Structure formats: C-alpha cells, structure tokens
C-alpha cells in the first residue's frame, strides 16, 4: 500500500536515483521497526540448503550487500547480493538504467558497478541477517576474458565463508565478452577450476558452500545441451535461469525500448521460462533450478515452478508491483 503511494513520486526521478532513494527509505523504515511483511513459512530444500520459503531476491538490487537486513524484512526466503568483482569499479557511464512502464520492463547497462569484494564482506559481517544469503560473483571489466578465471577464483575464495551459496555470473550482457564464457573450452575450464577450488575450500573450512551458475536467456538449443552436460560433469550444485535478454520483443515501439543493455521485467518472461523448461528437460532433476526473469505476479512464479524451478527470484517486478509481490508469489507457490 505504502509503495503504491510512493511509486508515482519515485518514477519522477531518474531510475538510478530512485533506486538509491528507495533503498535508503527501506533502511530507515527498518531501523525504526516500521517494516516487517508477514509471509507463510513454507520450507523448501534446494542445493542441500533449507530455504524458509521459495521466493528470493535476485542479484543486482543490492550489489554491495549494504541493505541486507531491510530487504530481508520484506519476507524473502533468501537474498542474493552482488554481482561483486575483485576490485571496485564504477561501471558504465550514466545514464545506464531505463524504465519502460508501458511494458513493466527495465533496460540496464550498469556494468557490474560495485565497491569490490572486500567492502561487500564488511557489509555482510555488519548485517544481522542469519538467513540464506547468496553472493553473486563476476570479473572486473578490465580483466581480459582469457584471464577471467582468476577473478572468479579471487571472489570465490574471499566470499566462501560468508555465503550460503555462491553464484557464478557469466551471463551479464554489459561486460564485454563475458557471455563467451558460456560456451566451449572457456566454460569447461571455468567450471573445472572453480569446482576444484570449492572442494578444497570445503575441506579447509569443514563446510560445503554450494556453487550455482547463472545463464542468459539468449541461448540456442545446442548451447543449453552443452551447458547442461558441463553442469552434470562437474557436479555444479544449481543453475539460475535466466539473466537479462539482448532481445527487444515487446518493447521495441516504446520510449527507451532500443537502449543498449539487458532487458528485464515482464517482456522477458516467456523467453526465460522457455529456457528454464529446456534446461529442466535435459537435466531431468540432476541439477536444481532457480527460475528468474519477468515475474510480476504469483501466477508467473507458479509457471516457473511448473517449468521445473525449485525456487524463484524477483527483481524488476518489485519496481512495478512493490513488496506485496513477494507475499503473492509465496502464497501462490505453496498452496
């Protein structure tokens, strides 16, 4: 209710400014005990972790883990922070975030703007949240793609002891050549290296932290089959389907519809869900799936579930629907 009143005002601001202001308002409301959305406790076990409910926050909203406690008060079953890189980076030039309200869509070309992995760990340590926390890792923009594995290793090692699970993001369209890591020898080398290090860290800390991969919706059938086989081969713990799309179906005739970057929100739902169902068919339950992309209603969360997802994540839908989306999705998925 409160968000529905605030949204028209927020939409008068530049999207990135509105994003920052909203998070600041959430922090203040949480500090004064004004925020706590009651949701059903419907546990789901996935990747060996018990989630209090199947609806999570997707990476990208809280890149630095600076707002974990306030966001957790919205009732999420899990929070994913990041994408984080080894070193701080400013990301792409402004403007880089665009609303398309007519389609309940967003285009972003943020470019992994973040304060670096060390700052994220400081923020995680300072939070009181003791629920399921995913940390999404990436590479710095100025690291050559052929050296990307080293950046992922740095992040994996640093966040390992602070994460419930770790997501390897190789699917953002806003870091040059990043999506090339989704195919061929590059993917094989990345998964093998990270899996080997994960097992070493599990022995070192006497604690196993699952590893998930996040992929794009713009994949051909042969890509989906290849990625699936690699996930099984290296015993990756989970797959997040999907990131944003480079397609423009459903927004091409709207203002901002042809801005460069990744498209998220309602228009990506069908493409993302089709990709999810294709992975589900090939993986046949061997790797758990997390569905994300275009969820703006509880019914769409159920559609992801029916397509093979054990869990779902939301982000862009929150911008248009508000925090009640979390409760609606939980209620719909756990009937």
Automatic annotation (TrEMBL):
<feature type="binding site">
    <location>
        <begin position="243"/>
        <end position="244"/>
    </location>
    <ligand>
        <name>substrate</name>
    </ligand>
</feature>
<feature type="binding site">
    <location>
        <position position="294"/>
    </location>
    <ligand>
        <name>FMN</name>
    </ligand>
</feature>
<dbReference type="GO" id="GO:0006207">
    <property type="term" value="P:'de novo' pyrimidine nucleobase biosynthetic process"/>
</dbReference>
<feature type="binding site">
    <location>
        <position position="174"/>
    </location>
    <ligand>
        <name>substrate</name>
    </ligand>
</feature>
<protein>
    <recommendedName>
        <fullName>Dihydroorotate dehydrogenase (quinone)</fullName>
        <ecNumber>1.3.5.2</ecNumber>
    </recommendedName>
</protein>
<dbReference type="GO" id="GO:0106430">
    <property type="term" value="F:dihydroorotate dehydrogenase (quinone) activity"/>
</dbReference>
<keyword id="KW-0560">Oxidoreductase</keyword>
<dbReference type="GO" id="GO:0044205">
    <property type="term" value="P:'de novo' UMP biosynthetic process"/>
</dbReference>
<feature type="binding site">
    <location>
        <position position="169"/>
    </location>
    <ligand>
        <name>substrate</name>
    </ligand>
</feature>
<comment type="pathway">
    <text>Pyrimidine metabolism; UMP biosynthesis via de novo pathway; orotate from (S)-dihydroorotate (quinone route): step 1/1.</text>
</comment>
<dbReference type="InterPro" id="IPR050074">
    <property type="entry name" value="DHO_dehydrogenase"/>
</dbReference>
<feature type="binding site">
    <location>
        <position position="169"/>
    </location>
    <ligand>
        <name>FMN</name>
    </ligand>
</feature>
<dbReference type="InterPro" id="IPR005720">
    <property type="entry name" value="Dihydroorotate_DH_cat"/>
</dbReference>
<feature type="active site" description="Nucleophile">
    <location>
        <position position="172"/>
    </location>
</feature>
<feature type="binding site">
    <location>
        <position position="265"/>
    </location>
    <ligand>
        <name>FMN</name>
    </ligand>
</feature>
<feature type="binding site">
    <location>
        <position position="136"/>
    </location>
    <ligand>
        <name>FMN</name>
    </ligand>
</feature>
<dbReference type="InterPro" id="IPR001295">
    <property type="entry name" value="Dihydroorotate_DH_CS"/>
</dbReference>
<keyword id="KW-0285">Flavoprotein</keyword>
<feature type="binding site">
    <location>
        <position position="83"/>
    </location>
    <ligand>
        <name>FMN</name>
    </ligand>
</feature>
<comment type="subunit">
    <text>Monomer.</text>
</comment>
<comment type="function">
    <text>Catalyzes the conversion of dihydroorotate to orotate with quinone as electron acceptor.</text>
</comment>
<dbReference type="InterPro" id="IPR013785">
    <property type="entry name" value="Aldolase_TIM"/>
</dbReference>
<feature type="binding site">
    <location>
        <begin position="315"/>
        <end position="316"/>
    </location>
    <ligand>
        <name>FMN</name>
    </ligand>
</feature>
<keyword id="KW-0472">Membrane</keyword>
<dbReference type="Pfam" id="PF01180">
    <property type="entry name" value="DHO_dh"/>
</dbReference>
<feature type="binding site">
    <location>
        <position position="242"/>
    </location>
    <ligand>
        <name>FMN</name>
    </ligand>
</feature>
<keyword id="KW-1003">Cell membrane</keyword>
<dbReference type="GO" id="GO:0005737">
    <property type="term" value="C:cytoplasm"/>
</dbReference>
<dbReference type="InterPro" id="IPR005719">
    <property type="entry name" value="Dihydroorotate_DH_2"/>
</dbReference>
<dbReference type="InterPro" id="IPR012135">
    <property type="entry name" value="Dihydroorotate_DH_1_2"/>
</dbReference>
<feature type="binding site">
    <location>
        <position position="214"/>
    </location>
    <ligand>
        <name>FMN</name>
    </ligand>
</feature>
<feature type="domain" description="Dihydroorotate dehydrogenase catalytic">
    <location>
        <begin position="44"/>
        <end position="332"/>
    </location>
</feature>
<feature type="binding site">
    <location>
        <position position="63"/>
    </location>
    <ligand>
        <name>substrate</name>
    </ligand>
</feature>
<keyword id="KW-0288">FMN</keyword>
<dbReference type="GO" id="GO:0005886">
    <property type="term" value="C:plasma membrane"/>
</dbReference>
<feature type="binding site">
    <location>
        <begin position="59"/>
        <end position="63"/>
    </location>
    <ligand>
        <name>FMN</name>
    </ligand>
</feature>
<keyword id="KW-0665">Pyrimidine biosynthesis</keyword>
<comment type="similarity">
    <text>Belongs to the dihydroorotate dehydrogenase family. Type 2 subfamily.</text>
</comment>
<feature type="binding site">
    <location>
        <begin position="108"/>
        <end position="112"/>
    </location>
    <ligand>
        <name>substrate</name>
    </ligand>
</feature>
């Amino acid at each position: 209710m409160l968000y529905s009143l605030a949204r028209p005002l927020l939409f008068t601001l530049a999207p990135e400014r509105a994003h920052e202001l909203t998070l600041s308002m959430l922090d203040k409301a949480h500090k004064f005990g004004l925020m706590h959305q009651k949701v059903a406790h419907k546990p789901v076990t996935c990747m060996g972790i018990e989630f209090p409910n199947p609806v999570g926050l997707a990476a990208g909203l809280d890149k630095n883990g600076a707002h974990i406690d306030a966001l957790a008060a919205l009732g999420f079953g899990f929070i994913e922070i990041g994408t984080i890189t080894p070193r701080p980076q400013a990301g792409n030039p402004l403007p880089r975030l665009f609303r398309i309200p007519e389609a309940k869509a967003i285009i972003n070309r943020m470019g992994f703007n973040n304060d670096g992995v060390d700052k994220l760990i400081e923020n995680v340590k300072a939070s009181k949240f003791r629920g399921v926390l995913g940390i999404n890792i990436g590479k710095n923009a100025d690291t050559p793609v052929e050296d990307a594995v080293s950046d992922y290793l740095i992040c994996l090692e640093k966040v390992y002891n602070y994460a419930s699970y770790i997501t390897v993001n190789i699917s953002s369209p806003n870091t040059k050549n990043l999506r090339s890591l989704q195919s061929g020898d590059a993917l094989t080398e990345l998964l093998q290296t990270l899996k080997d290090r994960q097992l070493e860290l599990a022995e070192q800390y006497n604690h196993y932290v699952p590893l998930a991969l996040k992929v794009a919706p713009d994949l051909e059938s042969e890509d989906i089959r290849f990625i699936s086989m690699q996930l099984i081969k290296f015993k990756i713990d989970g797959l997040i389907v999907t990131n944003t799309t480079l397609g423009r179906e459903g927004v091409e005739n709207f203002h901002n519809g042809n801005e460069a970057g990744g498209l998220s929100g309602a228009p990506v739902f069908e493409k993302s869900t089709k990709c999810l169902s294709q992975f589900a068919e090939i993986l046949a339950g061997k790797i758990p799936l997390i569905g994300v992309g275009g969820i703006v209603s509880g019914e769409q969360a159920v559609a992801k579930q029916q397509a093979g997802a054990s869990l779902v994540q939301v982000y862009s839908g929150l911008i248009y629907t508000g925090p009640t989306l979390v409760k609606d999705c939980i209620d719909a998925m756990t009937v």
